[in-house]
Amino acid sequence: MRRVILIIPLLCLAMPLAAQQRSQAPAAPAPAQAPAPAQAPDAPAPENAAAIEGFRSARFGMTEAETRAAIRRDFAQAAERIASEQTPVERTQVLTLNVPDLIPDAGTARVSYILGHRSKRLIQVTILWGPPADASARPEALVNAAEALRAHFAALAWRPGTVAGGVALADGSTLVFRGLDEKGRMAQLQILPGPPASGTGPRPFGLRLAYVADPLNPDVFRLQRGQF
After folding, report:
1. Is the peptide bond before 139 cis (omega within 30 degrees of 0)?
2. What Å distances lie between residue 155 and 26, 38, 94, 103, CA to CA?
C-alpha cells in the first residue's frame, strides 16, 4: 500500500509612522529638548526557548545527501533500509526508515524525512508510532509516549499565542500539542484514529509527531493561479 505523507500546513499580524509638522513662518529657536531615553535592548531569549531546527542531526535546509548522512549518524543500523518515494500530490521526496524503541516501550517508529518540491531540501520530519507503522504497539504505551512528549514540549518557551492542545480536529485526530518557535517553525503532536476495530475491542490509534520548517508556506507542488 502506498504511504501518503502529508505536509502539515497552519495559521496566524504596521506601525504608524509619526508625521513631521513643518512651520510655514520663520520660527523662533526651539527650546532645548531633553535627549530621548535610550531604548531598552531586546530581552534575551529564555534558556528554555523552543528551537525547532529539524530532528537530531538532520537540519532543515539539508540536501538529500546531507540528510542521508545525518540519518546514518543517528540510526546507523536502520539507515541501511531507507525507502525513498515521491508523494503523488505534493511531489515531495520522502526518505523513510523504521526505528525500534525511539521511545522506550512504544514499539517501532516510522521516521520520514521530507524534501521540498522545489528546493529539494529538508522541510519536515514526521514520526509515527502505532498503526499503520507498528500494529503491535500497545495502546497504553502510546498514551504514555504522548504524555511524555507533551510534557517535554510544555516545558519549553514558545512564541506567545501559538501553543494549543487538547483539541479534536476535523480529520478525526486529536491535537495533543502544537507550538511555534520564534522563527515560525512548528512542532505538532497528534493522536490519529486507526481503522475500525474488529469485534468489540477498542479502536486502535497511532501517534504522530511532526517538525515543520514553514507550516504557513510549505514547499509543495501547487497549481499556479490562472492556469485553470
Report:
1. no
2. 62, 34, 31, 18
Contact between residue 5 and residue 114 where contact means Cβ atoms under 8 Å apart: yes
Helix (H) or strand (E) holding 70: helix 64-74
For the chain (228 residues), the mean pLDDT of every run of 10, in chain order, is 52 34 40 50 77 98 98 93 96 97 96 98 98 92 97 98 95 95 98 75 86 97 88
Q: Are strands 83-86 and 58-59 parallel, antiparallel or unpaired?
A: unpaired
Amino acid at 162: T
3-state secondary structure of 176: strand
Which tens digit of pLDDT belongs to each residue from 205-216?
Answer: 999 999 999 999
145-189 pLDDT, tens digit per residue, is 999 999 999 999 999 999 999 999 998 899 999 999 999 999 999
Q: Maximum distance among all alpha carbons in the chain? A: 93
Query: CA-to-CA distance for 193 and 30, rounded, in angstroms?
Result: 72
Closest Cα to residue 130, out of 189, 209, 194? 194
Q: Look at the chain and count its residues.
A: 228
Classify residue 20 by burial, with Cβ atoms within 10 Å: 0-12, 13-18, 19+: exposed
